[in-house]
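Q: Here's a chain of 211 amino acids. Please give me its 3D structure as tokens.
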Amino acid sequence: MWTGYAGDAFAGSTWVMLWNLQKARPLWITNLQEDESEDMEDPQSPGQLLNPALVHSVSVASCGNIFSCGAEDGKVRIFRVMGVKCEQKLGFKAHTLGVSQVNFLPESYLLLTGGNDGKIMLWDVSSELEKKQKSPTKHTHKRKTKKATYAKQGGTTSASVTDEEEHGDILPKLTIKHGEKVNWLLGAKIKGCQNVLVADQTSCISVYPLS
């Protein structure tokens, strides 16, 4: 079982754990904040405030040994389970604010993310996972952007297909501008079409097509 502890009140809220449920004890633990500090090339400048990597959401892919983790620092991290330990295979900046929700679509490496910035994004991490398996590399930043937007019928919410927003080598396949902080999301097929259900701080559930 994979689980992440989130919340300012818990001292280990930046931890991700792999559990042995039969013995009710963790087999593997990582602290995202410590890992992030080790990966930083430049020391933090005096007075600079960085969002801590508080774990908000974890989702396991259908294969069973790949899981994603969304954190307060706006990053998504992808891990592979290798026996009784896990290894981070991919990490990228997904949202300008915290990543509140991650959700793998069934039978694929298509990943939905929802953020405190009011956006929902769809990512295809399959090629990056294959690339990492062959030869690990550092991500570079910035490519040119192309956008095509459409307005949500009956409202002001819009969705846009983007090529780049400082996500490094991995780019979102779809960006939906929901406009409200995303509290929950789920990929679901409705009448044969893939959609995403989104809950925010209102009493309404929004439905967006993933096409």
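Q: Can you summarize the key feature?
A: The CA atoms of residues 159 and 176 lie 4 Å apart.
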